[in-house]
Amino acid sequence: MTSNEIKLSSLVQPHFRRMWRSNASYFVLNGGRGSFKSSTVSLKLCVMMKKQTQQGHKANVIIIRENATNLRDSVYEQIIWALGMLDMTDEFICRTTPLRIFHRRTKSTFYFYGADKPERLKSNSARDVIAIWYEEAANFKGPEVFDQSNPTFIRQKSPYVDKVPVYYTYNPPKNPYDWINRWVTQQELNPDCLVDKSTYLDDELGFTVDQQLALIEQYKKNDPDYYRWLYLGEEIGLGTNIYNMDLFHVVNKLDSGDPILYMAFSVDTGHAQSATALTAYGITAKLKVYVLDTFYYSPAHQSVKKAPSQLTKEIHDFIAKTLKQYPNAQVIKRTIDSADGAMRNQYYYDYRVRWSPVKKLEEKDMIDYPQSLLAQGRVFVLDVPGNKIFLEEHRKYQWDEKTVQSDKPRVIKEDDHTCDNFKYFCLSNAKFLNLKV
Ligand SMILES: Nc1ncnc2c1ncn2[C@@H]1O[C@H](COP(=O)(O)OP(=O)(O)O)[C@@H](O)[C@H]1O
Ligand SMILES: [Mg+2]
């Protein structure tokens, strides 16, 4: 064995040896979180690059994510990491505008693109392509991007390689009807495609740190189905009920050993038929979430419905009352349904306080946030009258059966106002709550 081979065998999990040595043209690497997919592909690409630059050849690697804003913190950093692991850092220059990493001597380049800017992909004139990588492939809108860009890049193949291998890495979505879960069954039929599934359990080299293993155990204990999806990469299906109600731990009092240090408010508003549902959330020192109390007003069947100026007063009073009970807690955010500008303006006019409109995602993506928090066993609901409706609505919250067997599942939009505010709370405080989905 050469010293290079020794080095690689200490970096690449034995699980990926088959993929590493394979002569296939397409590689689909899927599996659970933390199964070394991204790191392995980044190492592979750097080794391929090294082979070319050592011979003085110019070679280019194309790396694509669903969205340009995610490039820098993920694939760009990932390649820098891999270059470091392979002692190649000094040979390269990293640029952020535009995002590029290039080899000093040969000008060989790692290009990074977001599929949300298709014009950049199309106008790409990089020749000498030696590989393509689609990272987080499940986040793409569909397989069209692959079908459109692969031929373009493959046409620009470097004369020094036989083929341009294409790598796809992703964690399978829960929903078996999600496009990528159907797409992969097609790929399995392609003799020129290697489909590989990995999990964190494939860690023969002992890279996974204890803290990570402890977190995984927490998921496994609290919500085995969620664990199977997130860490074993199984398509567990959506089920009919969106939430497992056992994960909303109803309690009579707070935990004296873990005080509430922060508060956040989140509101879903409605004026004609839909209710206004405002929930006060407490966040503890250990980042547990307490559903403290809920304010709920439904204008349905009321002959005279409350005006925004009446509602803002009631909301303000409710918040003042709750804050009084937790005088030491600091308010970190007030989140409001982004569809409602009127209430937001009214509140600012009345109280000079700005609510943050939530940046909504697709329903199934938004639901991932509360589900992740719940699956970690971090949600507690105070048994107070105001929260009855919170529990009731979450218990009833369901996928619309007619849409469950599709790529775009929808929820039944009835009595889901506290469910909406809970999603908005999780989404807009995701960073603070350390929620990675
Ligand atoms: N060769 C290695 N040495 C040390 N840590 C590694 C190595 N390869 C991977 N890791 C770590 O393992 C973790 C999971 O790897 P990653 O490739 O991100 O998994 P996935 O893409 O499957 O979710 C990362 O935190 C990464 O830093
Ligand atoms: Mg990854």
UniProtKB/TrEMBL annotation:
Q: Origin organism of this chain?
A: Lapidilactobacillus gannanensis
Q: What is this protein called?
A: PBSX family phage terminase large subunit
Q: Where is the Phage terminase large subunit C-terminal domain?
A: 268-424
Give the Phage terminase large subunit N-terminal domain ranges: 24-234
Q: Which NCBIfam families match?
A: phage_term_2 (TIGR01547)
Concerning PANTHER family, the annotation shows: PBSX PHAGE TERMINASE LARGE SUBUNIT, PTHR39184
| Signal peptide interval | none
User: Known Gene3D superfamilies for this protein?
Assistant: 3.30.420.280, P-loop containing nucleotide triphosphate hydrolases
Lineage, top-rank taxon, reads Bacteria
